[in-house]
Target: Glutathione S-transferase
Amino acid sequence: MSKPFMRGVTYAQDMVRLYQFPRNAHIPNMSPFCLKLETFLRHAGIKHEAICSLDNWKKGKEGKFPWIELNGQPYHDSDFIMQKLTNHFKLDHLEADLTDEQKGTTRAVLKMVEQSLFETALYNRFMENLETFLTVGRVKIPMKSLLMPFVKYFLHRKIHTRMEGVGLGRHTREEIYSIAKTDVKALSQLLGDKQFFFGDKPHNIDIIVWSVLAESYYMPWDNMIKGYIKDSKNLDGFMGRMKQHFWPDWEEITAKPKKNAQNKEDRGAS
Model:
């Protein structure tokens, strides 16, 4: 067995250790990329352990979540991790029923959702609803309350700088939400009257789309993007089907107290 990347860690062969942000009272993870990867692990039936703690944020090579350890080796970036796991566990059968056109659509939708729509969701969360996100959203930041104003300022400036870097920050509020509305409409048109994007069973495209939409949809306050999803009745239904299919333990995960700082959760193949 390979030497563990994390010192003092013992694990079973081929057990995936998923390092990600702490659980939240409203959604299993506040990062769409963490949510996507954990949902993929469930979809693939891979035995894994979710370690939901900020303690491991900077320990990964890229200094951000999510990242995994598999047989002593760390892997980073949710897309590269999914490809690694697909190759390692020989999971090509999960997408084997798709045509080349559908595989191309998956790639195109991934880029639209995780770049265009995701950036507007960041604006929605951090530029317009930061105070609500940290309070009503029950986001736990381990520091003294006196420092919270500085945390809010830092997050706001960080996202503003990011927005400027990707070009979104040069748009008006109306233009930003127009982009979000157009993206959501495109997803609704692509889904049509199907249960999932490619028929009656979920594929990677469904996990990708759902994970980004979920970060606005499941927040316990009204927001523009959540409204666009609910106005698209087929997407509204899709959100519920995905939650029921992959997260039957949603209420348990989001409601139970987190007494263990590491918040370790073992999930077997299903």
